[in-house]
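Hi R.,

As promised on Friday, here is the backbone we talked about, encoded as structure tokens. Could you run it through your design pipeline when you get a chance and send me back a sequence?
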């Protein structure tokens, strides 16, 4: 019987930790399999966190006290928290030591922590330390960093991993303010998704404040040999010293991006906008932690060709951080709006012809997921069903790209001026509120369609949201710059030598179009000649390298395999790793290579990434 089946028939029992009194029959701590949380926020919800913690690299442990202010809306007798692999040492309620209860561990979701409270109680303090299975944390040895001198630690809490960093009510609908005091080893700087220090101090003690309410998945922390360089008065870059100048130069257009973003979304409400360029093992492209985007170093290409990722994370300052999906099945509200917003920012600073390439590549990514899921696959809806499923299952290209192209359709059909007014009003009216798909559609009815249901139905709005696949009014994208790329590939396929290809002025995106459309397998002669002329196996551009390695696996171009292994040992971004391991899995010989590489380098990957790759390699 599965965990969920057991939960369907059985209220979770409790392990009485500090008291010999009989268990209270009213203390019903139940896991909500739609909200993916044990928290009882409808009855009693946290409002502010005071976090006092120490970072121990020797033990790979965060220890400290999380003190929560809460509001008891319904005279509840217990407050419930989410935890994952946390050891609870002591609990106090209104400064008096209290008993507490932990539910049995539920795979992927952790344990519920229940604490008795009385009318008038407003504060609970939980002393604890993290465990070795903490899914939010990655601990790096010095040799896994750019500087090779000091270790490094960073967090990744989206979607339900904050509970492995500290006990919390870990669901996106509950927003909290927080302040923190952290002790880290001397010689290191610690930064959070809050007001941050910009210089190291001798004591290794730092304080932080986030006075704007955020959901717990946006709590973030990084500790290491980190330095800061300002871009302008409200933006700058944090990273390891050896990368600082290159990162600063690559991201110097952030002020221009911000100007474009504010035209569409309204004023930026978070004060500073800084970017932390994380170590290579960072598992995703970027994470929109308020005031401090965490980003992969794979975007530092030297030509600003990959900075649309920063535009995406900046756009989250409105769609996601300001207006947050109420539940993870509403993820498209965060990611679809943000992807559309990102493309508008890039259009403003790089022009229409450039941005159309981003749209087309995104469309290709979406089509790849449609192929994997089936055009009528359940998860090709924008509003997905995540009951009894991990919310991580929602993170495909569908909420990003189908959500974005849906909004593009609305813009094209209603006119940009009217659509922009809708967007601005949407962010303003829903600011700092959890929002559902249904609330968004109701707002759309009032402000975009002016109550004209016939107009809404003609545009197939509900079909876009609730049905599988793509409606037939999906915008068509045919970037003029890709037409020229396709002509060059057609010349090659018709017999023209590689030496005659005209690639002058190609950006990363033209190269991706060229490589993605090559036949599988590609002729060995073409692979060899392309590599000799363009040095693709040695490319330092991670996007191009990843696409080339996928083509090399499919074509059995073994000359690229040694460099591919180096790439897999150094890069931790799931977007790159998962397709390479999936491609290797297609033949028995390459599967053995994949298993060997993964066994050798899995400790270089974030726990969430390693878990996903292990599932890929073990799936039949």
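Update: got your reply. Pasting your designed sequence below so it's all in one thread:
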């Amino acid at each position: 019987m599965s965990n969920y089946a057991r939960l369907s028939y059985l209220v979770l029992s409790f392990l009485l930790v500090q008291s010999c009194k009989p268990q209270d029959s009213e203390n019903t701590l139940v896991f909500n399999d739609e909200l993916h949380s044990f928290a009882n926020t409808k009855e009693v919800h946290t409002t502010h966190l005071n976090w006092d913690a120490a970072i121990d690299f020797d033990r790979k442990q965060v220890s400290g006290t999380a003190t929560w202010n809460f509001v008891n809306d319904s005279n509840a007798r217990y407050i419930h928290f989410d935890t994952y692999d946390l050891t609870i040492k002591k609990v106090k309620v209104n400064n008096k030591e209290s008993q507490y209860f932990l539910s049995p561990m539920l795979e992927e979701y952790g344990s519920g922590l229940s604490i008795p409270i009385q009318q008038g109680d407003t504060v609970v303090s939980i002393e604890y330390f993290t465990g070795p299975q903490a899914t939010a944390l990655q601990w790096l040895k010095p040799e896994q960093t750019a500087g090779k001198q000091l270790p490094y630690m960073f967090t990744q809490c989206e979607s339900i991993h904050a509970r492995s960093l500290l006990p919390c009510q870990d669901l996106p609908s509950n927003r909290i303010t927080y302040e923190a005091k952290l002790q880290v080893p001397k010689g290191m700087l610690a930064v959070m998704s809050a007001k941050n220090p910009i210089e190291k101090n001798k004591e290794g003690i730092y304080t932080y404040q986030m006075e704007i309410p955020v959901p717990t998945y946006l709590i973030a922390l990084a500790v290491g040999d980190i330095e800061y360089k300002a871009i302008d008065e409200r933006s700058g870059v944090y990273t390891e010293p050896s990368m600082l100048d290159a990162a600063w130069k690559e991201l110097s257009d952030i002020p221009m991006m911000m100007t474009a973003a504010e035209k569409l979304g309204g004023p930026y409400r978070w004060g500073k906008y800084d970017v932390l360029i994380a170590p290579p093992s960072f598992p995703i492209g970027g994470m929109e932690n308020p005031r401090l985007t965490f980003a992969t170093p794979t975007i530092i290409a030297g030509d600003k060709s990959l900075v649309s990722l920063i535009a995406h994370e900046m756009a989250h300052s409105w769609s996601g951080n300001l207006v947050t999906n109420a539940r993870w099945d509403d993820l498209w509200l965060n990611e679809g709006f943000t992807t559309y917003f990102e493309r508008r920012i890039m259009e403003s600073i790089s022009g229409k012809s450039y941005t159309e390439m981003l749209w087309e590549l995104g469309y290709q990514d979406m089509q790849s997921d449609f192929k994997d899921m089936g055009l009528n696959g359940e998860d090709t809806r924008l509003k997905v069903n995540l009951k009894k499923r991990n919310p991580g299952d929602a993170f495909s290209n569908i909420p990003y790209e189908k959500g974005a192209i849906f909004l593009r359709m609305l813009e094209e059909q209603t006119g940009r001026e009217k659509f922009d007014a809708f967007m601005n009003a949407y962010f303003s009216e829903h600011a700092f509120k959890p929002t559902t798909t249904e609330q968004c559609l109701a707002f759309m009815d009032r402000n975009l369609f002016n109550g004209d249901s016939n107009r809404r139905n003609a545009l197939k709005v509900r079909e876009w949201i609730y049905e599988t696949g793509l409606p037939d009014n999906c915008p068509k994208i045919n970037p003029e710059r890709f037409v020229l790329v396709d002509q060059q590939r057609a010349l090659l396929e018709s017999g023209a030598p590689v030496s005659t290809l005209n690639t002058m002025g190609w950006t990363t995106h033209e190269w991706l179009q060229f490589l993605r459309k090559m036949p599988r397998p590609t002729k060995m002669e073409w692979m060899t000649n392309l590599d000799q002329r363009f040095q693709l196996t040695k490319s330092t551009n991670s996007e191009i390298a990843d696409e080339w390695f996928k083509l090399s696996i499919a074509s059995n171009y073994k000359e690229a395999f040694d460099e591919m292994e180096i790439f897999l040992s150094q890069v931790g971004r799931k977007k790159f790793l998962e397709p390479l391991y999936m491609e290797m899995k297609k033949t028995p010989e390459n599967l053995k290579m994949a298993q060997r590489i993964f066994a050798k380098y899995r400790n270089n990957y974030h726990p969430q990434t390693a878990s996903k790759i292990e599932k890929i390699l073990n799936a039949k």
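One thing I noticed while checking it: Residues 1-23 have pLDDT under 50 and may be disordered.

Thanks again,
M.
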